[in-house]
Amino acid sequence: MDIEGGCRAFVAVGERGSFTGAAAAIGVPQPVVSRRVAALEAHLGGSLFDRTTREVLLTPLGRRLLPAARRVLEATDDLRAAARVGEQAPFRLAVPEDLSPSAVATLVADAKEEGIRLRAVAAPPVRRAELVRDAVVDAAIVTAASGGSRWSAPLGLASGDPAAGAATFLDELAVRRGDEGPARRVWVTPEDDNAPVGDALVRSAVAAGCRPSQVRVAPLVPALADVMTSRDLLLCTEAQARDLGLSWSPLGGPALSRAYRAEARPGGAPAAAAVLAALAGAVAHALGAAEVVA
């Protein structure tokens, strides 16, 4: 007994009140629909339709079983969809290495909801560009100039001081006569060590009276360790500060943003553009950024 075929014919007739209409809806000849319904009735041991009038009406048994038949079809369709997801090759996406594990896991889960089997490859900025150029990944989230970005997030300064919150101005960090202790530093991770952000921060800091050496570049872990054990600050997004357990404040003065765009590998499948479009919102959430409206 073809339970799925019988249920599909049963539901189609029950929803349309016509064997002819059901046949057109599911794309099989009308006699096939009749045979499938008859086989299902024999299997269930009762009539599903009253055929004694000009109309095709559900019997009490048919009305009771129609919702269950719909659930059988939904489960069958879900099973096929799950099989398709399992069979397809994973879409390899290079993402920033500083993303938290929970952000990456959420991105993968969101992709699964879209029917996309995603493999996230964490890497620093330069390496992400190399991975997509060398076709090691299908696409990469790469640093973008502000005018060509798909996602953008304002940058501010994070610290271990729970009282932080108001805007922090760079001239507050300038060394003045009589100051005790080492000068406060701003740590910049490789993610922001570029001309639009890192270089602009150094220029603004010097203009505000800071020493160039007060802006330092280091990987996230050693930079975070210094911030947690001193009065130093970390340049990052608000979402990243929250993930790291730091207090975040906007940067007073220069308006700096972490900007990204998606880059597909050269000669890649046309479907890559559709995958990236489907994941745009999920990527924004993972980056703690907003989608840029073109």
Description:
- The protein is an alpha/beta fold and 294 residues long.
- The chain folds into two domains: 3-87, Winged helix-like DNA-binding domain superfamily/Winged helix DNA-binding domain (Arc Repressor Mutant, subunit A, Orthogonal Bundle), CATH 1.10.10; 90-294, D-Maltodextrin-Binding Protein, domain 2 (3-Layer(aba) Sandwich), CATH 3.40.190.290.
- The protein is 45% helix and 20% strand.
- It has eleven helices and 13 strands.
- It has helices at residues 3-16, 19-26, 30-44, 60-87, 101-113, 125-133, 195-207, 220-228, 238-244, 271-278, 280-287, and strands at residues 49-50, 57-58, 91-96, 118-123, 139-143, 151-159, 168-169, 186-188, 215-217, 233-237, 247-252, 257-264, 290-291.
- A hairpin with a 6-residue loop joins strand 1 (49-50) and strand 2.
- The two termini are 55 Å apart.
- The mean pLDDT is 88.
Task: Give the helix level as a range of percent.
Answer: 40-55%
Order of helices and strands: HHHEEHEHEHEEEEHEHEHEEHHE
Q: Helical region count?
A: 11
Q: How many domains?
A: 2
Portion of residues in beta strands equals 15-25%
- CATH architecture heading of the largest domain: 3-Layer(aba) Sandwich
Distance between the termini: 55 Å
CATH topology heading of the largest domain:
D-Maltodextrin-Binding Protein, domain 2
Average pLDDT number: 88
Poorly predicted segments: none
Q: By helix and strand content, what is the structural category? A: alpha/beta
Q: Main sheet, how many strands, which sense, barrel? A: 11 strands, mixed
How many DSSP-defined strands? 13
What would CATH call the class of the largest domain?
Alpha Beta
What gross morphology would you assign?
A: elongated
Instruction: Give the radius of gyration.
Output: 30 Å
